[in-house]
UniProtKB/TrEMBL annotation:
Ranges for domain Flavodoxin: 56-126
PANTHER family on file: EXPORTED PROTEIN-RELATED, FLAVODOXIN-LIKE DOMAIN-CONTAINING PROTEIN
Signal peptide: none
The name this protein goes by in its record: Flavodoxin domain-containing protein
Recorded superkingdom: Bacteria
InterPro entries referenced in this protein's UniProt entry, alphabetically: Flavodoxin_dom, Flavoprotein-like_sf
């Protein structure tokens, strides 16, 4: 089963989780990148607003044939209870090439926020699996067991 991890990360939590997951699964990681620096309070509110209003923003091209992978795992934060705008833009651009998709979300809240349902509703596709990891656990490096369990569950 050929898997690819795709990361979007503003403050590093999702990158850390994505790299750990890829290490366990023994697969590559690629990153969704933008040409803007989302820094400061204005950008915080702008980013939340973009996520809520489902805005498509410019992202850098990723020169990968996604159709060569059996599945793609997106690792990203939750913004305003929603998909981050750069992740939505990635999906808008490449989802039709992706055979099977799953999600790992990092978030401040310790509650189970079902952002994969937002994906399923907006993109009319089902995610094969998803998990949410609390940002505090990522910062304290106590997320690895959860990620290992998830990797074992999805490993075929
Ligand atoms: C614009 C913005 C909106 C956010 N909205 C939420 C939210 O609705 N719920 C939540 O639990 N965390 C929210 N967060 C926190 C991030 O999801 C969390 O810190 C995440 O781990 C950051 O991942 P990153 O370091 O990979 O960027 C938000 C963060 C930002 C920057």
């Amino acid at each position: 089963m050929k898997t690819l991890v795709v990361v979007y990360s503003l403050t590093g939590n999702s990158r850390k989780v994505g790299e750990t997951l890829a290490g366990i699964l023994g697969c590559d990681v690629v990153e969704i990148k933008e040409n803007v620096k989302r820094k400061g309070i204005i950008w915080f509110f702008k980013s939340g607003y973009e996520a809520l209003t489902k805005k498509i923003v410019p992202i850098e091209d990723i020169n990968i044939d996604f159709s060569q992978f059996d599945r793609v795992l997106i690792v990203c934060p939750i913004w305003a209870g929603n998909l981050p705008s750069p992740v939505r833009s990635f999906l808008n651009k490449y989802l039709d090439k992706i055979k099977d998709i799953g999600f790992v979300f990092t978030l401040t809240s310790d509650e189970k926020v079902k952002v994969e349902k937002v994906f399923e509703k907006d993109f009319k596709r089902k995610a094969f699996d998803s998990i949410s990891i609390c940002a505090a656990k990522v910062r304290c490096n106590i997320f690895e067991d959860e990620i290992k369990k998830f990797a074992d569950k999805i490993r075929v």
